[in-house]
Amino acid sequence: MAGKTALITGSTRSGIGATTAMVLASMGANIILNYGTGGTGREARLRAEELSKKIATTNPNVLVLEAAVDTEKEVKKLFANSVDRFGSVDILVNNAGGLWIEQDFAQIETRHWDQAVRTELDGTFYCIREALPGMRAKRWGRIVNVGLHHAIMEWLVNTQYGNVLDKYPYDFSIAKYAKQQFASLLALAEFKHGITINNVLPGIIETMDNERALEIIQGHSAQEMFLNPLDVAHAIVYLCSEEARGITQSDIRIPGNLYHS
Question: Which of 78, 139, 196, 228 has its CA 20 to 30 A from that of 95?
């Protein structure tokens, strides 16, 4: 990954985005952390700066940029600033996502539907559109969309609620499913430019704070027993590697901790 620049959207909280950034940084990639879609202000900025400092202990080439990916103008500025700093964006991980709220479909508020759709679809569209010209020019690019393992979601709901779907994160799930279609439709067309586009679809993943994840990445602690954001991050990183250059239009499913109680 040395010399490559990775932009990971929604990557300053603990979870898949932040962990992916830490793993890529440990392998020598330039890192662009992004926040601003799910929250702004002093608290969000401080959280981003704290993660940046953690990553800098492994790799000093890290940049924090605030941008709401569901806004075209902010995405254009995000990529312009990224290119100004590192010269290119070689890896794009579309991790920023909608909000999970379990509710009756008839009670979904329009503003919540819009938030899910704009983040998952508009945000992914804006970011991929900005990334493609530079990747095509270099004839090398990796795009990974973080989605949802829908079969595991159904299994979980049926197990928990006995097939009674009175409440469900409908808009979140629908937007995630639609997000997967970018890879289905774009991947083969971009493959001739040396660009791969894939989906990673996690299921039931344990939480892990960034401090703990960094300890494991740096070899100071053993990996946890149960599947966690690091397992998802390693799948994403593999798809971004040269070894995975022939893999595109694929869905990597990570069921997770199905039987962990």
Answer: 139
Whether the CB-CB separation of 99 and 115 falls below 8 Å is answered with: yes
User: What is the spatial distance between Cα 127 and Cα 224, in angstroms, rounded to a whole number?
Assistant: 33
CB neighbours of 41 closer than 8 A, spacing ≥ 6?
A: none
What's the first-to-final CA gap in the chain, in angstroms? 37
* Cα torsion through 147, 150, 155, 158, rounded to 10: 110
Between the CA atoms of 45, 46, 49 and 53, what dihedral angle is there, to the nearest 10 degrees? -170
Output the average pLDDT for the chain. Answer: 90
Buried b (16+ CB within 10 A) or exposed e, 61-94: bbbbbbbbbbbeebbeebbeebeeebebbbbbbb
- Distance, CA of 132 to chain centre: 17
pLDDT 10s digits, 126-171 = 999 999 999 999 999 999 999 988 777 777 666 665 555 667 788 9
Residue 161: the pLDDT is: 58
Helical (H) or strand (E) element with 149: none
Q: Are 175 and 235 in contact (CB under 8 A)?
A: no
- Most confident listed range (8-17, 96-105, 144-153): 8-17
Task: List the 195-204 sheet strands across, edge first.
Answer: 62-66, 30-35, 5-8, 91-94, 141-146, 195-204, 251-256
Where does 96-228 show beta strands of DSSP type E?
141-146, 195-204
Q: Are 193 and 135 in contact (CB under 8 A)?
A: yes
Q: For each of the domains in the chain, give its residue range(s) and CATH number, in order of start.
A: 5-256 (3.40.50.720)
